[in-house]
Design brief:
CATH architecture of the largest domain: 3-Layer(aba) Sandwich
Number of domains: 2
Largest sheet: 6 strands, parallel
Strand order of the largest sheet: 3-2-1-4-5-6
CATH class of the largest domain: Alpha Beta
Distance between the termini: 53 Å
Radius of gyration: 22 Å
Number of helices: 15
């Protein structure tokens, strides 16, 4: 039985967005369209076994997503939006229905598919639920599309805690900033990346058969193994008339370690600005400040088991000390002049 004070969560899944993003994270830009995944039926006698293997490696674990969403409170809304007549989508139906997910059907209205139908339907449903269910405390959006920025902002203005979950490399930085918390799919508890990593490595070793000339930089970007790719967030779909799903534009690589270091320094500077410049600050407060400035920040994807380990690795910038049960931190004077 749900307790009166329990948080109540609405989970909204842009199914195509997360499935396509995952496939292309492992197998390269344009791979979903190039391999014809939308109309690919792995049960067909003529199905290409190589494409079937690539599709299996890119399977999205929605159980892990739903379990993570349930950690925020009781799931009172649980919907996934897609055209469920498409074979690749239909293959997930049993898994989703076993978790009581409401499969919202999006009918194809154009020759190019549903286009941004999921975006509009999902956004309309969320806004309706915010007014229809005043006790809804959390809104969790499974997508990386920048079209959801306004929805996240509106949900926050109406007093809800907004969580986003997207695939690294296919997520809008602006969407992540608009959420109270943003998680990378690969960092969710229970996600096993060993099979995905092997698949990405196999893709990297496979010779190109395309007759079209490809730039060397394009080959390197498309075939890079998953662990070698740096975390960058870029808009996924813009829904032009030229393609059913537009691909992310290439962007300059951003070193996530550098970004995290700069975030830490800014958080410490803000903390010191509110009090004495030499004041020791609580490490928990600093982490909260960093998450408020960048909801996508997490130390584990950076290779650290705890936030303390992350701080210890930046000992040239900040010093730590123990004060009973508390861990305290302050910015070193010389670090102030580095920015």
């Amino acid at each position: 039985m749900t307790e009166p004070n329990d948080a109540r969560v609405g989970l909204y899944i842009d199914f195509d967005n997360i499935v396509i993003s995952r496939y292309q994270q492992l197998h390269g830009r344009n791979a979903f369209q190039r391999d014809g995944i939308r109309d690919f039926d792995k049960t067909s006698r003529d199905a290409d076994p190589e494409v079937a293997a690539k599709l299996a490696a890119a399977t999205v674990d929605f159980n892990a997503i739903i379990d993570f969403a349930a950690s925020f409170g009781t799931l009172v809304v649980n919907r996934a939006y897609a055209d469920w007549s498409v074979p690749v989508n239909a293959s997930y139906q049993r898994q989703l229905m076993s978790r009581a997910v409401d499969l919202t059907q999006l009918f194809t209205t154009t020759t190019r598919g549903t286009k941004n139908g999921a975006d509009i339907r999902l956004a309309v449903d969320v806004v309706e639920d915010l007014f229809r269910l005043p006790d809804l405390t959390h809104v969790i959006i499974i997508a990386g599309d920048s079209d959801y920025i306004a929805l996240a902002q509106k949900s926050k203005r109406l007093g809800r805690f907004v969580v986003g979950i997207g695939v690294a490399g296919s997520t809008s930085t602006s969407l992540a900033a608009a959420c109270d918390e943003f998680e990378d799919y690969d960092s969710l508890p229970g996600i096993d990346n060993s099979t995905a990593t092997a698949a990405a490595a196999a893709t990297a070793q496979r010779p190109k058969t395309s007759k079209k000339a490809v730039e060397p930089a394009e080959v390197a970007r498309e075939t890079a193994p998953i662990e070698a790719r740096k975390f960058t967030t870029i808009p996924m779909f813009s829904h032009t008339d030229d393609a059913q799903f537009d691909e992310p534009e290439p962007v300059d690589d951003i070193d996530p370690q550098t970004v995290a270091t700069e975030l830490l320094v800014r958080a410490l500077q803000i903390g010191h600005a509110k009090g004495d410049a030499d004041e020791w600050l609580n490490t928990g407060s600093i982490k909260n400040q960093m998450r408020r400035m960048d909801p996508s920040f997490k130390e584990k994807p950076l290779g650290y088991r705890s936030f303390t380990d992350f701080l210890s690795s930046r000992s040239d910038l900040a010093e730590l000390k123990e004060d009973g049960p508390q861990r305290l931190i302050r910015l070193r004077p010389e670090a102030e002049n580095r920015r």
